[in-house]
Specification:
Layout (H helix, E strand, L loop, with lengths): L10 H10 L10 H12 L24 E6 L9 E5 L2 E5 L4 E5 H9 L1 E5 L6 E5 L3 E6 L1
Antiparallel strand pairs: 1-4, 1-7, 2-3, 5-6
Length: about 140
């Protein structure tokens, strides 16, 4: 995906970006809707009005759930965004960029570990699958 601003992309670029992110595009979908879906998939704050009280949280999330600004570490071998699923909702988090996510996403990332074995001693070590840093509470 290019470094171009999503809000200034042409229809063809929007459709290509949506396809890369696994977003289904219909012929009747407006550009504004497509831009909003791409922002949502990347974990960016959409350039839209603030959500109403009923829209302020994802399904399965408490209305007053804490939100955090985080950065998922970049990786030399894996350049793909990190996908996190919580209660039927998928968050696609771009590596190396600050995004705002609910506390439930932070908890999933905290619990995502890989079991790595030392080849000499065969001792098992647990390491974070997606190292991340909490910047602040949003």
């Amino acid at each position: 995906m290019s470094e171009q601003n999503i809000d200034t992309m042409s229809r063809e670029e929007l459709e290509a970006t949506a396809s890369d992110l696994g977003i289904k595009v219909t012929a009747t979908m407006k550009d504004e809707t497509l831009v909003a879906k791409i922002h949502e998939a990347l974990g960016d704050a959409p350039l839209a009005p603030a959500p109403t009280a009923t829209e302020a949280h994802a399904p399965g999330e408490e209305p007053k759930a804490k939100r955090f600004k985080i950065i998922v570490a970049t990786h030399d071998q894996d350049k793909q965004p990190v996908q996190v699923g919580v209660n039927g909702r998928t968050y696609v988090i771009e590596r190396g960029k600050e995004v705002t996510v609910p506390e439930s996403v932070v908890e999933v990332l905290r619990n995502a570990v890989q079991h790595v074995h030392d080849p000499k001693t065969m001792e098992e070590n647990k390491v974070m699958a997606y190292p991340f840093q909490i910047m602040s509470e949003a």
